[in-house]
Write a structure and sequence with these properties.
The chain has 15 helices and 19 strands. With about 500 residues, the protein is α/β, with parallel strands linked by helices.
């Protein structure tokens, strides 16, 4: 289900005709070799496409507007090979609407000490031209990513590749449609939010349906399809009966199979990429969707519990941004549940009633059927597992009334000391950076929610860049956070984002 366009990024070199045709020929040759090298590096997740050297206001404006109109273009990489008078760029930049990267580099890595002359200096003026260009972009207040260094440096290439994933998140954000089955949980603050402003800011469409609209789809699933998917479950996952009768256990699992097929059919037919449920609004559902939602998340759908459409959209967005990463460790909705406060072993146990994506699992993934105290329905089947270890990011998008704020916390996922045999859910255990005390205090000061969109495969910088492109506030909680400075940052932001 997780499908996006075969996006490309345009490479636009700036110059001018002051130094003659021979200079421009070399500029074009250098640009072509750089694009070829970047594409061959293996560091970029998407193809870079070379565009003709830009030397006039007309050519710049046309190229940037062509980029706007090209559905396959997800962003533009600009580089000033020689001096490119920046007033030429004003109209094009003013009309350009997609992500922008300013690559501050030059063709040669080292000064040609023995041969350098003024012709070389005039031709290779990136240190000069990029500052002229950078000035006008700053004066116009245009958000862009700046990457500095030699284009053949793997670290530079990795930064470009990382930005590409952020750019895809920006472009694809406007294609996210969230289907809510039921409303927000009564009296819960953080799952609320301004849906109109979210569509203005992010392009998200958030719609509502009665849960019985999808129950019709679930009830219409043929028994043969249910049995086939259940057989797939039994072949893929371990089965923990907990003393239940095997036939009775399978019937509970079949309910989730019907839900997975029926819900997905509804989402596909109505063009939704994220879904929200609420345990208090189940209508004709026999069980709260558990295993079904976990499987849909694994396929790439976003999900939010208790009506949390913001986290559903963010999970979908982050899954898009991580698409195609080799060795990806997973992305999921999570919820802060309970602490371990033993000195030297502090952390937060993450889970949800049922719905944690198995993409984050390490080790065996098993099916259990257990009672659920909420929802007033039969015992739902769910996948249980423990999550991987390693660094990750947890994000919370909150509505502060006059603006959105994205809170980004660097976390370190760890193993719990002992098994938890009586806990029938998927779990993760992490310590927020810089430590539990500071991380939790900063999270609460910033207004962070208890639901998060979580990923092992994205970085703090990528999420900061996404927020910047969207024009919203972002605050970071990481190894550099201290509470005094963090409070000041929140105060300054309250003024900057009025």
């Amino acid at each position: 289900m997780l499908e996006t366009k075969n996006y490309k990024f345009w490479f636009c070199t700036g110059s001018q005709d002051l130094y003659g045709d021979e200079c421009l020929r070399k500029v074009a040759d250098h640009s072509a070799k750089m694009v070829e090298g970047l594409n061959a590096s293996g560091k970029l997740p998407y193809e870079v496409v070379l565009k003709p050297t830009l030397i006039s206001q007309a050519s710049i404006r046309k190229t940037l507007n062509d980029a706007n109109a090209d559905d396959d273009c997800a962003g533009v990489i600009t580089w000033m090979h020689t001096f490119s008078p920046a007033k030429m760029w004003i109209l094009g930049l003013k009309e350009y609407r997609k992500p922008l990267l300013h690559l501050h580099t030059q063709f040669n890595e080292e000064l040609p000490y023995d041969t350098i002359d003024m012709d070389f200096m005039n031709e290779n003026q990136s240190a000069h031209g990029d500052r002229e260009y950078g000035h006008i972009v700053s004066r116009m207040g245009i958000e862009r990513k700046i990457v500095v260094g030699h284009w053949e440096d793997p670290a530079v290439q990795e930064k470009i590749g990382s930005w590409m994933r952020t750019a895809i998140g920006v472009i694809e954000s406007s294609h996210i449609r969230v289907c809510r089955f039921g409303d927000n949980m009564n009296n819960v603050a953080v799952t609320e939010g301004d849906k109109v402003e979210a569509q203005i800011k992010f392009g998200w469409e958030i719609d509502h349906y009665n849960i019985n609209d999808v129950v019709e789809y679930v009830n219409a699933v043929p028994q043969g399809d249910i049995s086939a998917l259940t057989d797939e479950y039994y072949s893929k996952y371990g089965i923990i009966l907990d003393g239940r009768d095997p036939a009775e256990f399978r019937k509970h699992v079949e309910v989730q199979a019907a839900q997975e097929i029926g819900i997905e059919k509804f989402l596909v037919e109505n063009n939704y990429q994220a879904v929200v449920t609420h345990f208090g609004m189940l209508g004709g559902m026999k069980q709260l969707p558990g295993l079904a939602i976990q499987r849909l998340m694994e396929k790439g759908y976003g999900f939010g519990a208790e009506g949390d459409w913001k986290v559903a959209a963010m999970v979908r967005l982050m899954k898009i941004m991580t698409q195609g990463i080799e060795g990806a460790k997973g992305t999921s909705m999570m919820e802060d549940y309970t602490y371990n406060l033993v000195p030297g072993k502090q952390g937060i146990l993450q889970a949800h009633m049922l719905e944690v994506c198995p993409s984050v699992a390490e080790g065996p993934v098993n099916i259990r059927v257990c009672p659920l105290s909420m929802g007033n329905r039969e015992d739902p089947a769910r996948l249980i597992f423990t999550a991987k270890t390693g660094p990750a990011v947890a994000t919370s998008l909150i509505d502060l009334g006059n603006r959105f704020r994205l809170i980004i916390n660097a976390v370190e996922c760890k193993k719990v000391e002992k098994p938890m045999p009586n806990l029938p859910v998927g779990t993760a255990f992490w310590e927020p950076k810089p430590n539990l005390a500071v991380g939790a205090e900063a999270w609460i000061l910033a207004g962070g929610a208890h639901h998060t969109a979580f990923s092992y495969d994205l970085t703090v910088d990528q999420m900061v860049d996404w927020a910047a492109c969207m024009g919203i506030e972002a605050v970071v909680i990481d190894e550099n956070t201290n509470i005094r400075d963090f409070k000041n940052e929140l105060r300054w932001n309250s003024i900057a984002y009025k």
